[in-house]
Design a protein that fits this description.
- There is one protein chain.
- The chain contains eleven helices and no strands.
- It is mainly alpha-helical.
């Protein structure tokens, strides 16, 4: 930290605390919205809920509690490793769930893969933390600015960056395949239904939905790229770069905010909240649905202007 003066260190810490606080608040809002605005059968089997829990916890382990002593630093390092890796895995589970619903016609309310999701998303981070504790490769003191984490070297790359890069590739491949599959199904429907204004609007909604579905991996790629650039720079240079440090802090600290904004936008939380305040006028609030989910989830979705709906002929083209 020789190249950073005290003013820069103070600025970095202030940005880190502010970003972490904002992410904590927005992640908490998502949890409340998910619990109270979701229908009962969709409250706890959605990977987005558990991703929000990870984003809620991550800022807690960026508050430099490692300055309180060696044990605190090890605990902070373990928390950073556990919840960051878990968040990567939950984003991947979101991609898998979309693939199963849109490409394999799995019912949106199915709990088929939920036990496997929990086993992987909590089990793998726990194993990495146990290995690092057993072999003693967590940092025992924090830098002037930053948080305790894995010691620099092969362990950091083996148990964090390599899994992160693998999951980045999996997410990219999954979402490209999902969007391509959805577009192909709707294109076949248009070939049968004709290419009038209504059909073209229908296809346009599909593409818009595909972009919305890509927001989670885009956030994942964005926040990991920003922090990775700084980490790679530090491998080859002993002099920290203030601009890269700020980028790292912003990307790591605000990922909870970014995921929350995606959730609020994709699921129209504000509109749902307004409608929930008018039960007599609008009736019972329905749950979120994906395209092609009409046969799997019989309740009418409120998102008629956000997600394409299909006619009987188009539905028959799904298979």
């Amino acid at each position: 930290m020789a190249n950073l003066n005290q003013s820069q260190i103070d600025q970095l810490y202030l940005v880190m605390v502010l970003c972490g606080g904002v992410s904590f608040v927005f992640s908490f809002i998502v949890l409340l919205a998910h619990i109270f605005l979701r229908k009962s059968q969709r409250r706890f089997n959605d990977p987005v809920l558990w991703l929000s829990i990870c984003c809620l916890m991550m800022p807690v382990f960026t508050l430099k509690i490692g300055n309180w002593g060696t044990e605190w630093c090890v605990g902070e390092a373990a928390g950073n490793q556990f919840f960051n890796v878990a968040s990567f895995l939950w984003v991947t589970c979101i991609a898998h769930q979309l693939y199963q619903v849109l490409c394999c016609d799995l019912p949106i309310i199915s709990n088929k893969y939920l036990p496997a999701y929990h086993l992987l998303c909590w089990g793998i981070p726990l194993i990495t933390v146990a290995l690092l504790l057993f072999f003693g490769h967590f940092e025992t003191e924090t830098e002037d600015v930053g948080w305790c984490w894995i010691e620099s070297g092969p362990w950091r790359f083996t148990l964090f960056y390599i899994p992160m890069f693998i999951l980045m590739l999996i997410n990219c491949a999954a979402y490209v395949f999902i969007i391509w599959t959805v577009y192909g199904k709707y294109k076949r429907a248009l070939d049968v239904q004709g290419r009038g204004p209504e059909s073209q609007s229908f296809a346009k909604q599909t593409l818009v939905w595909g972009l919305k579905a890509s927001f989670y991996p885009l956030v994942f790629l964005g926040v990991t790229t920003g922090s990775t650039i700084n980490r790679v720079y530090e491998i080859f240079s002993s002099n920290p770069n203030f601009g890269l440090k700020i980028t790292h802090v912003l990307c790591s600290g605000l990922q909870g905010l970014f995921y929350a904004l995606v959730y609020i936008y994709n699921e129209r939380v504000l509109a749902r909240l307004r409608r929930s305040c008018e039960p007599a006028a609008h009736g019972f609030e329905s749950d979120y649905s994906y395209p092609y989910a009409s046969s799997n989830y019989s309740e009418e979705s409120e998102f008629d202007d956000s997600f394409p709906s299909e006619s009987q002929d188009q539905y028959e083209l799904r298979t």
